[in-house]
């Protein structure tokens, strides 16, 4: 019995009809491997197409098994040997999924800067933090805790966090993280619009350079440790 | 001067907090069951790990440092300079987690640092 292992991934599980536990993992014959995936999971002998991996003693849940497969069989690191093997991104499998991903990235890029802008507005109204005496500190903390903007900011940051976690359940980290670099530009736009801050050309330049830097960092391999597992 | 101290706290405490929480999570082990009871058990295990408390304390310190910095500086200054956590995270990963960082990532970190320097210079 073949069953997709994870939605949108190029794997199929062969389940034991008796126990329901996976016995083999196959690469789909029509494997649709996202462009960036080979950087993360250098798939062995991908060109051979359908490929059975040896059975394993799966005593744990299938989820654990999938993770094990990803860790053990799909070796990390290593530059792509064949960049021409531009296999269609799995997100292109579904137009809806593509749209959903864009929507969530949009939410991420809006909610994080909005949260910070609201925190900034809240803190401007609270005034400088006074930490000289316990009484002054307590008073400042009370003013922070009673500021509506601070709570709106925290809510917005929580919304960002939830959206970020959700999008990572179907999209690749190396896809989402660079996209979130735009939030540094959005924060400048929002602080200009909502708070009336003066953003000088020099600051814009700095923000642009930061965006580029974050884009480069995000495009690199998210797993930086050397391979420690062997088949 | 106070901005430098606050930025230092935001970056170092924030990154240190993340590293401590990561270490605590590694101690606790992988989450396999997402049932409410299992999650509660997981939280009960998590709060018994010292690293978790240290991590949460450091993250709290970083958050209040961020609030303090926002009270004296513009948002369009504070948020971009906190991008330095990419540099701190990378250095922390090399020093504490013994990760191997690619040259491309170092280039990215360097570009972020240049951008932060430019934003810092744009301070009023």
Are there runs of chain B of 5+ residues with pLDDT below 50, and where?
A: none
| Sheet with the most strands: spatial strand order of chain A | 1-2-3-5
Segments of chain A where pLDDT lies below 50 for 5+ residues?
1-8, 29-92, 224-231
Shape of chain B: globular
Number of helices of chain B: 6
Give the N-to-C terminal Cα separation of chain B.
13 Å
Overall mean pLDDT of chain A: 66
Oligomeric description of these chains:
heterodimer
Q: How large, in whole angstroms, is the Cα Rg of chain B?
A: 17 Å
Describe the 3D structure:
The complex is a heterodimer of chains A (231) and B (124). With 231 residues, chain A is α+β, with helices and mostly antiparallel strands. Chain A has 8 helices and 6 strands. Chain A has helices spanning 37-40, 62-72, 95-126, 134-145, 148-168, 173-179, 183-195, 201-219; strands spanning 2-4, 11-15, 22-27, 42-43, 51-53, 74-75. In chain A, strands 1-2-3-5 form a 4-stranded antiparallel beta sheet, covered by helices on one side. The relative contact order of chain A is 0.12. Chain B has 124 residues and is mainly α. Chain B has helices at 2-28, 36-46, 50-72, 75-81, 85-95, 103-121. In chain B, helix 1 (2-28) runs antiparallel to helix 3. The radius of gyration of chain B is 17 Å and the shape is globular. The mean pLDDT of chain B is 86. Classes of the chains: A alpha+beta (231), B mainly alpha (124). The interface between A and B is large, with 50 and 44 residues.
């Amino acid at each position: 019995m073949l069953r997709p292992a994870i939605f949108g991934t190029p794997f199929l599980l062969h389940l034991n009809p008796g126990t329901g536990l996976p016995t083999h993992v196959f690469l789909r014959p029509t494997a649709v491997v996202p462009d960036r995936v080979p950087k993360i999971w250098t798939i062995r002998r991908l060109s051979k197409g359908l490929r059975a991996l040896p059975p394993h003693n799966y005593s744990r849940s299938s989820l654990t098994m999938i993770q094990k497969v990803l860790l053990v069989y799909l070796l990390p690191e290593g530059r792509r040997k064949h960049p021409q093997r531009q296999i269609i991104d799995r997100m292109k499998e579904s137009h809806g999924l593509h749209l959903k991903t864009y929507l969530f990235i949009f939410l991420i890029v809006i909610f994080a800067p909005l949260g910070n802008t609201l925190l900034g507005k809240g803190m401007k109204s609270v005034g400088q933090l006074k930490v000289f005496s316990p009484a002054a500190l307590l008073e400042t903390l009370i003013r922070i805790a009673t500021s509506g903007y601070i709570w709106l900011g925290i809510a917005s940051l929580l919304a960002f966090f939830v959206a970020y976690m959700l999008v990572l359940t179907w999209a690749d980290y190396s896809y989402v993280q660079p996209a979130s670099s735009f939030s540094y530009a959005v924060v400048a736009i929002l602080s200009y619009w909502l708070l009336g801050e003066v953003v000088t050309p020099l600051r814009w330049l700095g923000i642009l350079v930061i965006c580029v830097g974050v884009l480069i960092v995000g495009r690199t391999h998210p797993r930086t440790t050397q391979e420690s597992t062997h088949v | 001067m106070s901005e430098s101290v606050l930025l230092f706290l935001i970056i170092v405490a924030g990154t240190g907090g993340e590293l401590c929480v990561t270490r605590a999570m590694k101690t606790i082990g992988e989450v396999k069951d997402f049932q409410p009871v299992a999650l509660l058990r997981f939280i009960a295990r998590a709060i018994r790990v010292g690293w978790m408390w240290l991590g949460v304390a450091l993250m709290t310190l970083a958050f209040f440092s961020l609030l303090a910095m926002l009270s004296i500086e513009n948002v369009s200054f504070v948020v971009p300079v906190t991008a330095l956590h990419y540099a701190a995270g990378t250095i922390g990963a090399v020093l504490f987690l013994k990760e191997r960082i690619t040259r491309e990532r170092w280039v990215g970190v360097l570009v972020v640092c240049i951008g932060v320097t430019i934003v810092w210079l744009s301070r009023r």
